[in-house]
């Protein structure tokens, strides 16, 4: 099997679910080889960023053009089982609700069929002053299209 080792890994959609695979490295764990709780937030952030890119939203261009960007304003997270050094994980993300200035995303960190972490994240679209502003209409349409997939 020949692969392009210079191309970064990208997740992708299976129906309405965005799936992002990752492995647990030593730096992700505590002294006992268990993933440190805050690192689940990093895993989910990477997966959300990849999902946003996969739907065709260019956050970097918008940030440079208008100073606006998404920021997490709320997280409700439940830790169910620990991930450990060497585990292969998958972050499964689904768009639950799209509003004028925010998106609600359900994210699960899975080890095979096991649910390890379950979270609901609200990302608000903020201007350069940190105030909520309307998302671009084409972005709203892209998120709504994902949420509607079956």
TrEMBL record:
Top-level taxon in the UniProt lineage: Bacteria
Gene3D superfamilies the UniProt entry points to: Hotdog Thioesterase
Keyword Hydrolase: yes
Keywords attached to this entry: Hydrolase
Pfam families in alphabetical order: 4HBT_2
Similarity remark: Belongs to the 4-hydroxybenzoyl-CoA thioesterase family.
Protein name: Tol-pal system-associated acyl-CoA thioesterase
Organism, scientific name: Sphingomonas limnosediminicola
Taxonomic lineage from the root: Bacteria, Pseudomonadati, Pseudomonadota, Alphaproteobacteria, Sphingomonadales
């Amino acid at each position: 099997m020949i692969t392009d080792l210079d191309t970064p890994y990208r997740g992708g959609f299976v129906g309405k679910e965005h799936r992002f695979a990752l492995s647990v490295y030593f730096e992700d764990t505590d002294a006992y080889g268990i993933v440190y709780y805050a690192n689940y937030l990093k895993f989910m952030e990477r997966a959300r960023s990849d999902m946003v890119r996969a739907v065709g939203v260019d956050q970097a261009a918008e940030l440079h053009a208008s100073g606006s960007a998404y920021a997490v304003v709320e997280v409700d997270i439940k830790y169910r089982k620990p991930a450990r050094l060497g585990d292969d994980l998958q972050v499964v993300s689904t768009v639950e609700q799209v509003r004028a200035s925010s998106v609600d995303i359900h994210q699960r960190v899975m080890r095979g069929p096991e649910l390890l972490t379950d979270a609901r994240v609200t990302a608000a679209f903020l201007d350069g002053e940190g105030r909520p502003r309307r998302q671009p209409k084409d972005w709203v349409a892209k998120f709504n299209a994902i949420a509607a997939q079956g």
